[in-house]
Every structure is written in structure tokens, then in C-alpha cells.
Design brief:
The chain is α+β, with helices and mostly antiparallel strands. It contains four helices and ten strands; from the N terminus they run αββαββββββααββ.
Length: 160
Amino acid sequence: MATEPAVGTVTFAEFLETVREDQKADLIDGVIYYMSSPDNTEHNDLICWLVVVLRIFLRRTDLGRLTVDRVAYWLGERQGPEPDIGIVLSERVGLVKRGYVDGPPDVAIEIVSPESIERDYSASVTNTKMPASANIGSSIPTNSLSHFSCAARRVSSRSR
């Protein structure tokens, strides 16, 4: 028997007011999902490596801005995911505000470890994190990190 995804009443503004800066959470369909902490060390190592590589690349090419963890992206009144790593292209960098981005990321990277497979791959979270996205991830052979998932989407000029 299939269950309907949870639907709540929390708005994006309420989400920003409720979740502390030291907490990681996603707003999916009006429900706040708090993430467990701390991350495992392999998860942390991979994020650190990706951040260094991407930051160097983005600074040298001036293609965009990098956000890391705990930065919410406004995807609608009741949608505010916080991808592990997000990229906002230069032409949309004006959407980056203090504590959130006023629109979707151009690239969202979510590191999926064994402890977070169910949460990160649930239908509601996956579809909300990056609507109209294509999974361009690939397996990375690390000790306990089973999959690296990267979703990218082209954003029209009509974005919020």
C-alpha cells in the first residue's frame, strides 16, 4: 500500500526563521526535515575536496558562486532544500541573499552516504530538491560512501 507524501503548512519564510544556522534541514512540501549530524568522515572529506576544486574553478572562470551546506534555495512557498553544494551562475548571482538563495541552484550536489540513502532518495525529496533535473551522478568507490549524486538543471530567465 503506497503512502502519500507528507504535506505541511510551513512556509519558506517560516522555515528561515525556525531553522537555526547550526542546523541542516530541508523544507519539502511544507514539512521541515532536520538532517542528522554529524556527517560521516568520508562524506565530509568528499565535500571538502569538491568545494576546493569547484571554488578554484569558479574563481578562475568567473562562472558563478558556490554555496555549501545550510544555504536554502527558494523553490516555492513551501519548498526550500539545502543541497550539500550549490552553484549559482554569475548572471543569477543577484539571487544570493544572506542565508538563502531566492531561486533554484543551477547545479546542486548532494552527497549520498549509506546513512542517508532513504532520506536523499525518497521520491518527495529527490523530486523537490531539483525539479526537472537530470541525474548525472556516478558511483565513487570509497569505503562507506556508496554514491555521488549530482543534479543539474537549466534555469530560465523567468526564475524568481
